[in-house]
Amino acid sequence: MSLALSGRRVLVTRAAHQAGKLSDGLRAVGAEPVEVPVLEIQPPADLAPLDRALRGFGGYDWVVFTSANAVRALVERSASLGISFAPAAQPQIATVGAATAAAARNAGFSVSLVPETYIAESLLGCLAEQIRGKRILLARAEVARDVIPDALRAAGAEIEIVEAYRNVLPEAAPGLLRRALQTGINAATFTSSSSVTHLAEAARQARIAFPFAGVPAVSIGPITSATLREFSWEPAAEASPSDVAGLIAATVQALSSQS
Fold it and tell me: What is the model's pTM?
């Protein structure tokens, strides 16, 4: 894939603190990453449910993290409360994807389960046989799909969902998007359903038609692809595996097919 994207401008919609890995990977194949962060991580409006969960952390059988942002938010809030997680008192930890698992391990957690494919449905398949009657904490964003809690309840688990953080649209996003499109982009990458919905909102505020005519969308996985389709933007390519390296390879695929 060496310099396969030479001269191509690729939109990166990740939060500013997470964009580096994708942007660096795109540069490595010759692309010019155009960063328009459409996600900004903020604390939940009401911290009380998260605080209660953190104070009773040792009482859960499992904790499920669906993103590195959830890990980070939980760790930062626990530090503010003066709570430390002693290894002996930790529940079992399940994560969606290697990046989330790495964030959990870096925070001092022992990760028990990481599914082979980095999507929620794969995690559910791995957990289903061992959670009947178990108490599970799901720490996640304010707006998230109900696939995981619904399936875990159906498998007989007792689920407690807490909002660990909120994804909000940065104020600068509409202006950055307007400038990016004026210069031109060759593809747009999406790493989550939220990145799709937030980019759509940024476009609305900037009075830009969405989806962008003639710009291929590249999705990190099937759920993000489904969200793109809700906006009538058929993905030109979908990452497999559903990680940053897979997304870069899918971007190469999408743009090579246009050459």
Answer: 0.83
Q: Give the Cα separation of 116 and 132 in Å (integer).
A: 22
Q: Which two tokens stand for residue 80?
A: 């503010």
Instruction: Encode burial over 69-96: b for 16+ CB neighbours within 10 A, e otherwise.
Output: bbbbbbbebbeeeeeebeeeebbbbbbb
pLDDT digits (tens, 9 = 90+) for 205-238: 999 999 999 999 999 988 899 999 999 999 999 9
Is domain 9-39+169-256 classified as CATH 3.40.50.10090? Answer: yes
* H or E element, residue 213: none
Query: For the chain, what's the residue count?
Result: 259
The two three-digit tokens of residue 7, written as one number = 């001269």
Domain 42-167 has CATH 3.40.50.10090: yes
For every residue of 110-162, DSSP letters joined together read -EEE--SSSSHHHHHHHHGGG-TT-EEEEEEESS--SHHHHHHHHTT-EEEEE
CB 11 within 8 A of CB 180: yes
Q: What is the DSSP string of 1-53?
A: -TTTTTT-EEEE-S-GGGHHHHHHHHHHTT-EEEE----EEE--S--HHHHHH
